[in-house]
Amino acid sequence: MAATDVDVFSNEEKRNLSLGGHVGFDSLPDQLVSKSVTQGFCFNILCVGETGIGKSTLMNTLFNTMFENEEASHYQNGVYLRPRTYDLQESNVHLKLTIVDTVGFGDQINKEDSYKPIVDYIDTQFENYLQEELKIKRSLFNYHDTRIHICLYFIAPTGHSLKSLDLVTMKKLDSKVNIIPIIAKADTISKSELHKFKIKIMSELVSNGVQIYQFPTDDEAVSEINASMNAHLPFAVVGSVEEVKVGNKTVRARQYPWGVVQVENESHCDFVKLREMLIRVNMEDLREQTHARHYELYRRCKLEEMGFKDTDPDSQPFSLQETYEAKRKEFLGDLQRKEEEMRQMFVNKVKETEAELKEKERELHDKFEQLKRMHQEEKRKVEEKRRDLEEEMNAFNRKKVAAETLSLSQPLKKDKDKKK
Amino acid sequence: MSSGETSASEADGNGGMMAQQKNLEGYVGFANLPNQVYRKSVKRGFEFTLMVVGESGLGKSTLINSLFLTDLYSPEYPGPSHRIKKTVQVEQSKVLVKEGGVHLLLTIVDTPGFGDAVDNSNCWQPVIDYIDSKFEDYLNAESRVNRRLMPDSRVQCCLYFIAPSGHGLKPLDIEFMKRLHEKVNIIPLIAKADTMTPEECQQFKKQIMKEIQEHKIKIYEFPETDDEEEMKMVRKIKDRLPLAVVGSNTIIEVNGKRVRGRQYPWGVAEVENGEHCDFTILRNMLIRTHMQDLKDVTNNVHYENYRSRKLAAVTYNGVDNNKNKGQLTKSPLAQMEEERRDHVAKMKKMEQEMEQVFEMKVKEKLQKLRDSEAELQRRHEQMKKNLEAQHKELEDKRRQHEEEKASWEAQQRILEQQKLDASRTLEKNKKKKIF
Lengths: 420, 435
What we know:
The structure holds two protein chains of two kinds. By secondary structure, chain A is α/β, with parallel strands linked by helices. Helix content of chain A is 52%, strand content 15%. Chain B has helices at residues 33-44, 60-68, 125-143, 171-180, 198-214, 228-239, 279-289, 291-316, 332-434, and strands at 19-21, 46-53, 91-99, 102-110, 157-162, 186-190, 243-244, 251-254, 257-264, 267-270.
């Protein structure tokens, strides 16, 4: 037994070994891909923009489908979000697509709170995922992920600058979701105006510190195309589901008296660029960013809010069990304390009231003591008077008796006299 | 959606969204998603942790080297059977291998000393502890507030080597597999298969599978697929379980081909010859087709079992939680929330009751007070009346007395007068008589 045995095998040194032949684990990516294809993919888009700016049309154009949409009215009291889920399939790939529309955005007179329902919706989806993740018995692998992977922010084609509502809303959303700003109805702006407009928008975003989604440039396979696309933001798009014959082809386009705006013509608008970036090249990265960055941020804030920490005051790492146990102890102690407090409050209340009632009793007692004394006094007086009267009456009676005896002897004398 | 609605989001929770089927009318591009996934996974690289368990001398190191066509175990890094220990150890070695642009971080966990002692009771315990500690590490990493890229060192597959006795499983084999089948994917292998003839091997396999079923041991199950081709292959594998393998570090020339094999006087047992042993099947299954599934089953089944048991214990502090299975669908925090709400309700009720009792007592006391006040009042009234009656009586008596006195005095006066008159008349008469 060599002395170095234990050392060699218990340290974390990673050896690089060369293979003597074809082992076959280069099929691992294929195994992973095959599993994901079987599971199916899921993608959630949030469209934020004023009523009538072309959100629904763009979705129909992007996904080459007629999604059901009633036209929204301009008279909504507030902003509300309408999610719709669709099952799509292209070749052997199944996609569960959820499109969330912001109905009523930008229609109110006071738009101060317009962003709130949007933020609330995004947070709710994060919260639902977090709750599932925290459950004791959970099933994350067949959980329908509703977290928003991309927010397409539709900018009105004024040609001047961003509206303050746009800046406020994007600022509130940029830490919660990947944002791609797009200029809607781009067929109303000329090329030169568009160029100026794009520069203005990007500079306003930068100066206001709004973080929009950057197409990733760390993977050599796509870094070039992504880098060049980053320079074309925001994409100026035109949407259309109508088909027009141009030359000998039928293309999706908008027919004007002065010409035909072709949706898929890259010199007419950036629609193809948007489709490439959003769907064909970076869809997976958008999902990853949502999970690894935005969701983690939400989760961290939520857990910190609930009082979870990774280390105790002595910087010793907590184990999950310790954390839960500590929380539980705190929780039970809290409950007990509340119970004690309530009991104590009652004890005090009882004491107070008892004292009050005793006081009242005493007062009553005193009152009647006083009355009793008065009464005794009166009684005494009456007795005195009675005695006086008795004395008088006795005196009178004696007088009467004396007088009577006297008068009794007198008439005898008279009679005696008469008899003589 | 009436105009009276305020800004409430209509978002439904999970499971509330009905998905509509839609057909695409043209090119969209998400069929490229699998390629995006492929690209990203290659960039990330892969990890796999493989555990090998078996008595020493069964050819484990040789097999690993054969499987991965590399010198994982070498004179500088000897295999488990050469690292004889007094007690069972669990040790790991990490190697980085590259093939076709794919990076794989392979962790081989071996158990030197397993089954080699005279008394092997509990020799599986260090293995169980190791697997659990890896689950624990992952659970803690997953539960941190600040989560970073979590390295996954959970054991994803366990190759269990059965000695080629030709009879059946040994008690140690059964004990080990029974204790570990719910913690890790177990793939039982018959080691040194070149010591048995095909018929003996067939018999042995049947016996082993029978015993595995008898003891209800759950070895790794190949997943069902919709693909007919794949299902055929899976069924073929299932028929040959447990796989009988031969490993070799030496390359021999056979019929002009250089193959891995074992040279005997009577011939060469070729490792990669399907008629000689099941090595190729093992390799294809373990590495080329089912590696991802082994990882998934570890993550979705074995790890989740560990996690839910661990968290349930924490939440209920040992209270029997089979009473309400429904409670396991919550997180421990949600559980605490519910308990808190229950407690608040209970406290409210208690408060109400105490209030009621209190009110009632106060009412009683007040009533008593009022009663005694009334009583005293009454008595006072009574006494007053008495007194007044006495007063009146006295008054009457006095009046009477006065009247009497007055009348008597009046009478006396009249009598006096009469007497006076009488005496005067007498006087007069007297005077008259004298004359």
